[in-house]
Each structure stands twice: as C-alpha cells, then as structure tokens.
Fold Ribosomal RNA small subunit methyltransferase I.
Amino acid sequence: MSKLYIVATPIGNLEDLTFRALRILKEADVVLAEDTRVTKKIFERYKIKNVLSSWHQHSKDKDWGKIKNFIFEDKDIALVTDAGSPGVSDPGGKLIELVLAEFPDTEIISVPGSSALTAMISIAGISLDKFLFLGFLPHKKGRQTLIKKIAEADLPVIFFESVHRIIKTLEQLKNCPKKLIIGRELTKQFETVYRGTAQEILEILQKDKQQVKGEFVVVVDK
C-alpha cells in the first residue's frame, strides 16, 4: 500500500531541512513538487537522486492520472511545496482530498518542519496563543472589506503578502493605530523584521525601495 508523505521544506535557508525530511525525500519512490526547478536546488544541495514530478494549483487530470498510477503501483510519494509546509496557502490540500476520495486506505503522514507562519509567530514578541490566519489576501474582490475587519479584529491577525501588494496593504492600514510586526525574507540572507504602526513601516519602505523585495508575513496585533 502506498504512503503519502507531506514534507515541509525550508522557507529560505536550506539548512532548515530536517533529518527526517531528508531521509524521506531520499527513500520515497517519487517526489511531487509545486515547482520542480525550486525543489531541484534541495536535490542538488543534498545529493538526492530521486524521481521528481510536478503537482501544483494548475495541475490537470493527466497529472492526477500519473499520480494514480504511482498509487496503483504501491509507490511511496513525498509531496513538497516551494517553501514551508504543504497545505498552508498552497495546493497540497487538493491532492490529499483527491487521494482520500479515491484511495481512502492510503496512509497520509506528516513530516513537519519549516513554516513561515510559525517562524513569524516565534519572533513576533506578542501573545499569539490565539490568532486569526488569513493566508494571502484577495487581490481585488472583498479585499477592502477584509482590511477593515483586520483593523477591527479583537484577535491578532496574521497573513502573507507579496512584494507587489505590501505597499498597498500598508496604505490601506495606515489609519489603523494597532502595532504591526512584519517579517521579510524570513531565514534568508536579507531577513528583516519591522515593528511599528502601518504608517511607520510604510515610511521606512517608501524611503528605501530595496526593502520592498521578497515575501512578507504580516502580524497585526489586537
């Protein structure tokens, strides 16, 4: 019977790959990757010589058909995302749903590790025993309404933001007096953490465009 391993990979620093994750990636019959070009960097770093196949949000029926064949052949599969833990703001959940629907006896095993969410929580410096996580905010529809709810929330709110929208987000929150903690490029060479109001952090980023690069994790205190 096939096993499906859900394997967390580094969010930046490749040294954050766990011993167990490395073993599973080497032992699995096939590794499914959100972007094989990204995962190849891990393969090259740790000399992993395994079958690498693609699974992402735009995967088609033929891709699922290939995975079904792996399961029919009792092959063990490892699923990885580009960075962090599969299923957190990526298409990992879709694959698990398909597997459970057609192959309910398949053993699904978590191999936990890096996550931008937990990395940010660990350095936020505020009480986060309860919080609301929103993943990536919508680009357009419903965005303004959600921003208003974030500003008025009685729990801390955490969300991901891209380089293309971080300035817009801070501008939309600039009248909110709440404290923000923003992590940029977590675990990477240019990791930066900003603390202050949306207006204060906005001014910092607008003065230095070099800091408006990479991926951002935003924490809005209650």
Observations:
- The first strand starts at residue 3 and ends at 7.
- The mean pLDDT is 92.
